[in-house]
Amino acid sequence: MRKISESTVRRLSVYLGLLEEFARLGKATVSSDEMAQRGHTTPAQVRKDLSFFGSFGKRGLGYDVVELSDRLRDILGLGRTYRVTVIGAGKIGSALVQYREFGERGFHIVSVYDNDEAKVGRSWNGVEVRDVRQLESDLRTEPVDIAILAIPPHVAQQTMDLLVGIGVKAVLNFAPIRLSHPDEVTVQNVNMALELETLSYALRNS
Amino acid sequence: MRKISESTVRRLSVYLGLLEEFARLGKATVSSDEMAQRGHTTPAQVRKDLSFFGSFGKRGLGYDVVELSDRLRDILGLGRTYRVTVIGAGKIGSALVQYREFGERGFHIVSVYDNDEAKVGRSWNGVEVRDVRQLESDLRTEPVDIAILAIPPHVAQQTMDLLVGIGVKAVLNFAPIRLSHPDEVTVQNVNMALELETLSYALRNS
DNA sequence: TACTGTGAAGAACTTCACAGCA
DNA sequence: TGCTGTGAAGTTCTTCACAGTA
What we know:
The structure is a homodimer. Helix content of chain A is 46%, strand content 18%. By secondary structure, chain A is an alpha/beta fold. Chain A folds into 2 domains: 6-76, Arc Repressor Mutant, subunit A, CATH 1.10.10.10; 82-195, 3-Layer(aba) Sandwich (Rossmann fold), CATH 3.40.50.720. Chain A has helices at 6-24, 32-39, 43-51, 65-76, 91-97, 100-104, 135-141, 153-166, 192-204, and strands at 29-30, 63-64, 82-87, 107-114, 123-124, 127-131, 146-149, 170-173, 186-189. The interface between A and B is large, with 61 and 61 residues. Chain A binds a DNA duplex through helix 3.
C-alpha cells in the first residue's frame, strides 16, 4: 500500500473518536462536512484521508456511522487487544496505569517495572510492580506488543536497546530525549516540556 | 516576522536541549552536522531552521554553543519564567506537578484546582489544591500565563471557555478531545491514547 | 439533489547545491 | 579549507473543483 503520512493516521484516529460520539448520539449517517467541523479540519481533508483506504461513503448521503467506525478500527488495527508494559513506576507511570482510555481502546497494561526496591512487589491498580532486572526474561516468555517508557532520560537509551534486543516493535517514550532505534521499531514520543516550550514561543510572538 | 512552522519551533526546542548537553560536555563550538546527528535530522534542516531567525554561525567553524543557546532561549521566549496552573488533581495532574523538567525550564506551577472536596486543601509538592469554583476570581487577581487541563473530556470545553473568558492565552490540553477556541489562544494537545493508536497502526501495517 | 471520490493545482516543508566568508 | 546561509529544486501535504452517482 502507498505510504500513509503520520498526520493522516492521526486524523483517522480523531475521526474514529468523533464517529463513536456520533454513534452515542444515535446518528446513523454523517457527512465529511460534519466530521470536518467537529474534527477541526476540512471536508476535503476528511475525504482524501479516507480515500487512501477505499470508498466508504455513499454519494449524496454521506458515511454510515457504524460501518465507517468498523472500517477505521480495522485500518488502525484496533480490532484486537494489545499487551502493554509500562517501564518506570514513577508519577507518570502511575498515571498511565490508571488511565481509563487505554483499556477502553484495547490497550491492556499487563506489567509495570521499576528499579526501586521499595516499589517492587507493590500492586498498582491490580498490576504488580516488578523488578526491572526481570524485564528481559519476562518479555521473552510473555511478549508484549508495546512498551511505554516512563523513566529518566539517562537510562532511556539503554532500556530502548534492551527492548529492541528482546524484539519489541513499538515504543511510546515519555523521556525527554530522542532515542536511536532500528527502522523496524516504531517510536512515538511524548515530550511535555517541549509542548510548553511551543506555548512559550507562541506567547512571545503574539 | 514570517510565519514559522510548528515543526521548526519544535526542532528549535530540540536543538536547545542538545546544546545544553554539549555545554555540559564542555564543547565550545558545534556544527550543523553534529546537531543534526544528535537531533535525528539533517544539517540542511538545522541551518534552514536557524536561518529564519538570523545568522548565528561562523563559516568554516560552526556555532558557538553558549551563544546559540542564548539566542534560542530568547527566540523561544525562555528568557523568563511562566506562571502555570494545573486544572485537575487526578493522576495526570499529580504527575505534572512533580515533573522536574517544568521547573528547570522556568515553568512554575503556582496552583492546582479540582472539584473534588476531598482533594481541596491538600498540599501537593508544596502547592495547595484549591476549589475549582475559586478559579475565576483567583486568576483575575493573580493571572497565569499557561493553563494545563488534566480533566475529563466532558468538562474540558466548558473549562476552556472559562479560561478564554478570563484571558488565558495558552493552554496545554491532556483531555482526549479537540477544544474550540479563538485564534488568539494557543492550544497544544497531548493525547496519549492517540499515540498508542498510531503505534497500533504501525504494528498492523508492518 | 447532495454529497462523495479524486485528479490537478497550490501551499508548505525539506533537501540540494553552491556561493561566500571566517 | 570547512562550514554556514540561502535561493532553487524537489517532495509531501492540503485544498480546489468538478465529474460521478446513490
